[in-house]
Each structure stands twice: as structure tokens, then as C-alpha cells.
UniProtKB/TrEMBL annotation, chain A:
<protein>
    <submittedName>
        <fullName>Uncharacterized protein</fullName>
    </submittedName>
</protein>
<dbReference type="Pfam" id="PF14307">
    <property type="entry name" value="Glyco_tran_WbsX"/>
</dbReference>
<dbReference type="InterPro" id="IPR032719">
    <property type="entry name" value="WbsX"/>
</dbReference>
């Protein structure tokens, strides 16, 4: 099986009752249209072009969205699953009829928004809540990983008793007739904590949650004083700016030491609209929000990494995002960028798939684990010796 | 973007076809992306598609492949059904599209490789000769585009004035056609004289190509042994020039001009030269350089099964020596410093292999003898082949010896890739071949002397020593049943 590319999808752009109840009444696009940068260093938010400001509750609009995603080579969307106080809401009903023929849905459980899961609770209470969560995921054709429905846990550290909770969720999934649950923690590295708790894999966090390299601005006390004196733009102190290239490359370095972590790729990212009081994360390439060539390499190489390092049915790359207009990471064609990011995404996925096809995975069987361990120890010893001789000038 | 439009004068019917440079797909709209192809090669390919899909059409309107053109623009610039061939230009005589009769493609397809695609007058002269009727230039309503080509969004490279070589190529061919009444029968020679790996790729491509315009290959004197060693089907034309320096001190145009002078009238009067140096960003394409060369030589390559990776693997060779001790030959020096496997990692690899009882040889690296390796010298392909055959496995960076070992000798080989893309120059993945790299997001960066991301002198994308050693034992087990 080739590597599957799943795009995070914001389902709020629809007029269905449950979604409006969750996100508030009114037009969801309004927030994007009316957001105003607070600084000249903030890239302006973009708006959709080809697809327009759609309402996913209209089947023809949802159909066009899915058709464009399929055309770019995306295999499915990852939708947020949120608790609205009474039930879990995904907004997936609007997309469900469009699934099938190798396009499906997965979910990201926004567990950090629920106090219930942060505190101790009885097993029966947890089971009851878990069953509601699972029933919300039974919409549309699911994306299967290792034969099980794929779900990301957004805040794995905020789950009280994660081992028990994951066990309950998996039991409830089976009870609900699902083929099982494949649970991914939103973490950059394992350190033996997450996989041993029952997670099946990890996924790189989003750019705001994991600053994979040092920022290019390093505010200090003087910066603060200059801002307060009106001599400097306050975002120099409050926000963090990163070079896109370094940020993307740093995410792929030393991955083998981080455990089973699936790559997350993104064309651009600037989330000032989510941080009106400062604290935003900005990625930039020489004063621009994106560079389609570097982004293409990011996607293509992440696909190759996934192909080389994970089991055939667990090869994923997570694309942030299909339509997160509030962070500028959208792949959808836009007014300011036209089809550039969309085309760059398609080209990168095409290239990645072609290269993967060229690689024959069949092997007569490699050396055994004992030999691998022996090699690793010898290499480590040689590296230690080499480092020691370097220090002594030998 | 590549645009073609066909017109049938009998029915007055016009059909439009927009194509794109393939990024790894082989659909109806995809045309293989080959960095070694002149613009005229794409014009030929567009016309091939048009001819196949519209057998009744008698006129072809093909956009200049150097420009990002769409057929709706071409259609807007046409003023009625054509009655004679035309080169349509911008306001500065830059060719925008060509209106050509079907018979040109039937009679003289390969000569379209000689179009400059830069100078409408020159191209009109060439087409006049090819057709035996006057081809005129006609201006369309388009501001001059020539300057924009230095940074072409369509993927063409014009650094070091290399595109200007196309004018020189066209002018040279035009002179020949004017002087020789038998010009239609003259052999075509591909001008791709260096570097060693590239000469190898073209040689291998000549062997694989089922359809080619060419019969000869211009090669630098220092690489004259390579075509024969690689089983090239092309006759090699010797070029007594050193290969072009990598530091950019000599432009491609200057080099091509010096080469034409050096080749002399004897060669130039008997052969049609086609400039086949890299004209597009080859690493933007996922295709193997052998396939890119095959397309340039004339093959259309319309499915993955036709590519190097998609074809059945050729028979593989194996070392006849006893498997104990296992003997491994390394080549670690790329053509530039960032392409060389890092020294400290290499020392660790050699030390580990020696401790595990493996005999290690390296090509031209006496500095690694202190780590336990034997340094060997290889001055030509014959010596290299002998050295390879004296070892069970070959491990090399993305350079000539690696390609020779796997693509020519069929030897068990491991490719070490750092700042270049494996898919452009690896081998068929089969028993006896594998490659390694870390798939960092910066690959391929295109840098030479230092890492543009981290500022180091070495490329961080190379596989770590443990992976290299593990791959060696994996491959030894797979190919020889070797157990340490």
C-alpha cells in the first residue's frame, strides 16, 4: 500500500445545526473575512477562490470540496471531534456521502477542551462518555490504519489515566461494531511513555505546538522596553518568527530516535488571528509566507520517510491543512495565491507516489536482531572513541 | 505547460490540447519531464500527441515550450485557418508559437530539435529550409518575454547563458543544411560530453532506447573509454577539451562555442549537433536521468513500465570469490564536497566493518588507510570494473563508480545519497540494490560546498554509520547468503 496523505479539515464552514451550536451562530467565514492584522509583519489572511465561501451543508458544495481534494491526491480528511456539552460533534455528516473510492475520514479528538477527561472518574462514567465519542466517529467511510479506525488524540498529556481511557475507547469501538481503534498521540517524541500507554503511533504536533527550531527573533528586556516606549512593533516581543526551511528540515532530523512518529507537513503557518493578544507563531521564507518548491520537498520527503519507516498499512503523512484559513495553512485555491499551493501539493504528492512506486520493498530477509544490536553497539563504541580522540587531538 | 492546437482545413475544425510536464504521472495530459531535452524535443512530443489524436488534421499550432502557454491564448492569436507556415512572435521577435503543416512532422521530425526557440528569424530560416517553402514571422499582441526567461516558471534554466547555446546550435545546423544537399541523411550527434556519470547515463540510455534520432555522442577525450565500457550504441566523437569547470568560470555557451571550434569542420560537415546539456531543473523531475536521456534521444516514455524502474531487472552479476572474508569496495568522493560521505562517519563505518571481519577497500582515499581500509586507484572504466569484480559489494555516493557498478556491471550495490535525489540516479530496486538517505525536507538542496540550512560542511541527509553497516550485511546475506 502506498503512503496515504490525510489533510486536516475544518468542518465549521457549514450551516448544519449541530455545527452552528458548537461554533456559534452566524457565518463562519465572517471571522476570516474580517480578521485584520495587528502588524505589518503579519501576513494577511486569505480567502477561497475556486471553491468560494462554501456551506458544506449543501451537498454540491461538499462534493466540490472532496472532488478537489481527491484531484490533488489527498486520501482523506481529518476532522475535529469536539464535545459541545451534550454530544460530540464532528460535522462529518456533510462529507460522509462524498466518501468512498479511496477517500475517507479520520478524526482528531479535541480532548483538551473537556475537563471530564482531565480528572479522575469512575470506569462506568468514562465508558458512558467514551461510547458517545465512538458513536460520533461512526460517520462516513473511515480511514483504516492496520485495519482499525484512525483517531488522533490532540492532548495526550491531558488524559487522566491514559492507559485505562484508551482501553475503554478501544473496547467501546469494538462494541460499536467498528473494526477497532488506531489511536495516535499528538506528540513529537515518545520516550516510551505514549506507546506503552496504548497509543499505536504519534504524529508531529502543529507548528504552534512544536517549535522545531529556534526563532529568528529573540526578544529580551531591551526589546520589551523599546516596545513599551513605542519604538518597536510589539509583535517583535510577543510573537515568534521562524524561517520555514529550517523549521521544516528540523522536523525531519533524528526521527529514528523519536519513535514511531508520523510526519506532519504544512505549506505555511501564521496564526495571529488565533492570538489577538500576542503569542502567535509565524513561518516565513524570505519575507513571503511560503515557498512552493521547499514545501514540495517537505511533502515528497515526508512521504518517502513514511514509506521507508512504517508498516504498509500504517504509512501516513498528515497535511496541515486543507482549509484552516485562520492559520494560513490552507491548500485550497485562494484569492491571493491562486492555485500555487494547490498545484505544489499535487505535484509533490505525484512525485512522492512515483518515487515510492520505483522502490521495490521485497527483500530476501535481512539480518537478525542480534546482529543489528551488535552493529549498533560497535558503531556506538567507534563513535565514542572517535569523539574522544577528537577531544584529545588524536 | 505545453500547448498544442490542431486545425483541419477540410472541416474547419479546431481542437485544443493542453499538456503539462509530468511530475510522476502518466496521464493523457502528461509529457515526460526531461532536463536533457531541447525545447524542440517537446515540440516534437506535443506534435506526436496531436498527430495520434487527430489523424485528419493538417495544421499544427504548437506553443514555444519555453513559455507557459495555454491553448486558449494560442487560439485567440490565430487569425483564421492557416494557409502557410508561420512563426508567431512577441513584439521583440521572440517565438511564441509555430504554425506548421503536418508533412513537416512526417518528413523531418528530428530536425525540429534544432529550433532555437529564442530567435524567430533564425527559426523561420530553418523551417523554410526544412519545408522548402517560405516561412514568415508574424507578430502577435504580446509584450516582449525574452528577459523573463532568466527565471522561467516553466522550469527552464538559463544560468550561464546556456539557453543561448540553442541559437548557436540552430545557426550551426542551418549552415550545414544550406551547404549539404543530402542534409536529410546526416547523422545526429548528441552534445553531452561530460561529466563521467552523465556520459554513462547517455550511454546506457542509447542502449535502452528503442526509438532514437541519434547515432553519435560527443564525448570529452578524458571520458572516451566510458561509452564502449557501458555498451553504448552510439559512435563516440572525441572532443579534445577538458570538461567544464564546476565553479561556473566558463559558461555553457562559451564551452559549446569552444567545442564547436575544437571539433572542426570534419565533424561539423558530417554531423548535426544537438545541444543536450541540462536545460531544465533535472531534480524537479522525479525521473531517472537515464530516462531523461532516453526522452531526449527520442523515446516518448508514456508509462511507468517503460522507465528504468518499471522495466524488468536485467540479469545480475555476482562475485566469484569465497564469501569469507567479505570484501567491500567503497567510493566516497562526490564531484563536490557536500556530495562526499562525511569523514567521521566513514571512519566509524570502516572501523565497525573491520571488527566484524570485513575487508574494506576505498577508491582514492589514502587518508582512510589509518582507519583500516585499503586505498585503491582506478584510472579508467576497465580498472574500475576489475576492482569491482574483486569485491563482493560496492558502496558508493551518487557518482560515476556507483552508477557503473549497478547500471553497467550489475553488481550488488548500495547507493549513499546526501544532497542529491535518489530517484534521479539510483538503480532498479531489486535483489542486489538498495539506497539510503534520511529523507530530510531539504533534499535536494542543490548546494555544493556547504549546507545552506545548517551551515555545516557536510550533508546531514546521509544515512548514519549503523544504517550503512546494517545495509551492507543485509545485502551480503541477500545476494550471497553471507552470515558473519
Amino acid at each position: 500500500m502506498s503512503v496515504r496523505v490525510l489533510a486536516f479539515f475544518d468542518a465549521r464552514y457549514q450551516s448544519s445545526a449541530d455545527v452552528r451550536r458548537l461554533y456559534g451562530e452566524g457565518d463562519a467565514w465572517r471571522r476570516v473575512r474580517e480578521a485584520r492584522p495587528a502588524s505589518r509583519q503579519h501576513f494577511a489572511l486569505n480567502l477561497p477562490s475556486t471553491l468560494g465561501q462554501y456551506d458544506l451543508a449543501q451537498p454540491e458544495a461538499a462534493g466540490r470540496v472532496v472532488a478537489m481534494a481527491r484531484q490533488v491526491g489527498i486520501d482523506g480528511f481529518v476532522l475535529d471531534c469536539r464535545w459541545d456539552g451534550e454530544a460530540y460533534v464532528t460535522g462529518a455528516q456533510a462529507l460522509a456521502p462524498m466518501c468512498g473510492d479511496s477517500f475517507a475520514l479520520a478524526f482528531q479528538w479535541r480532548n483538551g477542551e473537556e475537563d471530564f477527561w482531565k480528572a479522575p472518574a469512575s470506569r462506568s462514567d468514562r465508558t458512558e462518555r467514551a461510547s458517545r465519542l465512538i458513536s460520533a466517529l461512526k460517520v462516513g467511510l473511515p480511514i483504516l490504519a492496520d485495519g482499525r479506525l484512525l483517531m488522533i488524540v490532540d492532548r495526550p498529556k491531558e488524559l487522566a489515566d491514559p492507559g485505562e481511557v484508551l482501553g475503554i475507547l478501544k473496547e467501546e469501538a469494538c462494541r460499536a461494531g467498528l473494526p477497532g481503534l488506531y489511536v495516535i498521540a499528538n506528540r513529537s517524541e515518545d520516550k516510551g511513555r505514549f506507546l506503552s500507554n496504548g497509543y499505536d503511533a504519534l504524529v508531529d504536533p502543529g507548528p504552534a505546538e512544536w517549535h522545531s527550531c529556534s526563532p529568528s527573533n529573540r526578544p529580551n528586556g531591551l526589546t520589551f522596553l523599546e516596545v513599551m516606549a513605542g519604538l518597536r512593533d510589539s509583535v517583535d516581543y510577543l510573537d515568534r518568527f521562524f524561517p520555514y526551511v529550517l523549521f521544516a528540515v528540523a522536523r525531519m532530523i533524528n526521527r529514528s530516535q523519536r519513535g514511531k512518529v508520523m510526519p506532519r507537513v504544512f505549506p505555511a503557518y501564521y496564526d495571529w488571528a488565533l492570538h489577538p493578544d500576542g503569542g502567535a507563531t509565524h513561518l516565513a521564507v524570505q519575507g513571503k509566507p511560503f515557498d512552493s518548491y521547499i514545501y514540495g520537498l517537505f511533502v515528497e520527503n515526508a512521504m518517502l520517510f513514511s514509506q521507508q519507516n512504517f508498516a504498509p498499512d500504517e504509512r501516513f503523512v498528515f497535511l496541515e491543512s486543507w482549509n484552516d484559513w485562520l492559520t494560513g495553512s490552507q491548500v485550497e485555491p485562494s484569492l491571493l495565491d491562486g492555485d500555487m499551493i494547490y498545484n505544489a501539493t499535487k505535484s509533490a504528492i505525484d512525485r512522492g507516489r512515483y518515487v515510492i512506486q520505483t522502490r521495490n520493498e521485497e527483500s530476501a530477509g535481512g539480518i537478525d536482531e542480534a546482529m543489528k544490536t551488535r552493529i549498533a553497539l560497535l558503531v556506538e563504541a567507534a563513535q565514542t572513541l572517535s569523539a574522544a580522540s577528537g577531544k584529545t587531538g588524536g | 505547460m505545453l500547448a498544442g492546437l490542431v486545425i483541419s482545413t477540410s472541416s474547419g475544425r479546431q481542437q485544443r490540447f493542453d499538456f503539462r510536464f509530468s511530475q510522476g504521472t502518466f496521464g493523457d495530459e502528461d509529457i515526460f519531464d526531461s532536463a536533457l531535452s531541447v525545447p524542440g524535443r517537446y515540440l516534437v512530443e506535443v506534435a506526436r500527441r496531436l498527430r495520434r489524436q487527430t489523424p485528419e488534421a493538417d495544421w499544427f499550432v504548437v506553443g514555444n515550450p519555453l513559455l507557459p502557454l495555454r491553448t486558449d491564448l494560442l487560439a485567440g492569436w490565430l487569425d483564421g485557418p492557416p494557409s502557410s507556415p508561420v512563426v508567431a512572435t512577441d513584439r521583440a521577435n521572440f517565438p511564441v508559437f509555430y504554425v506548421l503543416p503536418r508533412r513537416l512532422f512526417d518528413d523531418a521530425e528530428r530536425f525540429l530539435l534544432l529550433l532555437s526557440a529564442l530567435d524567430a528569424t533564425l527559426d523561420a530560416c530553418l523551417l523554410t529550409r526544412l519545408l522548402g517553402e517560405t516561412v514568415s514571422c508574424r507578430q502577435v499582441d504580446l509584450e516582449p518575454v525574452g528577459e523573463a526567461l532568466s527565471a522561467s516558471p516553466n522550469g527552464w534554466v538559463n544560468g550561464d547563458q546556456r539557453l543561448l547555446s540553442l541559437k548557436l546550435q540552430c545557426g550551426t545546423a542551418l549552415k550545414l543544411i544550406e551547404e549539404r544537399s543530402d542534409w536529410r541523411t546526416l547523422p545526429f550527434a548528441t552534445f553531452y560530453p561530460m561529466h563521467a556519470g552523465d556520459v554513462l547515463f547517455v550511454s546506457v540510455a542509447s542502449r535502452m532506447a528503442e526509438q532514437t534520432f541519434f547515432g553519435k555522442h560527443v564525448v570529452c577525450s578524458s571520458y572516451m573509454d566510458i561509452p564502449a565500457a557501458c555498451g553504448s550504441r552510439f559512435e563516440a566523437i572525441r572532443l579534445d577539451l577538458p570538461w567544464i569547470p564546476r565553479d561556473g568560470s566558463v559558461s555553457e555557451l562559451t564551452y559549446f562555442s569552444q567545442a564547436i571550434e575544437k571539433l572542426g569542420s570534419e565533424v561539423l560537415e558530417e554531423n548535426v549537433l544537438v545541444f543536450s546539456r541540462i536545460l531544465r531543473l533535472y531534480y524537479h523531475s522525479p525521473f531517472h536521468l537515464v530516462d531523461q536521456a532516453r526522452f531526449a534521444l527520442g523515446e516518448s516514455l508514456e508509462s511507468i513500465s517503460q522507465t528504468v524502474h518499471g522495466r524488468p531487472a536485467a540479469e545480475q552479476a555476482r562475485c566469484r570469490l569465497p564469501t569469507k572474508p567479505l570484501r567491500v569496495l567503497f567510493h566516497l568522493n562526490g564531484g563536490w564536497s557536500l556530495k562526499t560521505y562525511p569523514l567521521d562517519k566513514m571512519r566509524v563505518v570502516i572501523g565497525t566493518l573491520r571488527k566484524l571481519g570485513v575487508e574494506v577497500s576505498v577508491l582514492s582515499r589514502p587518508d582512510l588507510e589509518s582507519a583500516g581500509a585499503v586505498s585503491l586507484e582506478s584510472k579508467d572504466s576497465e580498472t574500475l570494473r576489475r576492482l569491482i569484480e574483486e569485491h563482493h559489494l560496492f558502496v558508493g555516493v551518487d557518482s560515476f563508480p556507483h552508477h557503473f557498478s549497478t547500471l553497467v556491471a550489475g553488481w550488488p550495490t548500495i547507493g549513499l545519497f546526501g544532497n542529491t535525489k535518489p530517484c534521479n540516479s539510483d538503480s532498479m530496486y531489486r535483489a542486489g540494490y538498495r539506497s539510503s538517505d534520511l529523507s530530510l525536507s531539504c533534499n535536494r538542496c542543490g548546494a555544493y560546498d556547504g549546507c545552506p540550512v545548517f551551515g555545516t560542511k557536510e550533508c546531514l541527509n546521509y544515512a548514519p554509520p549503523a544504517k550503512v553497516v546494517t545495509d551492507i550485511f543485509d545485502l551480503a546475506r541477500e545476494t550471497y547468503g553471507y552470515e558473519p
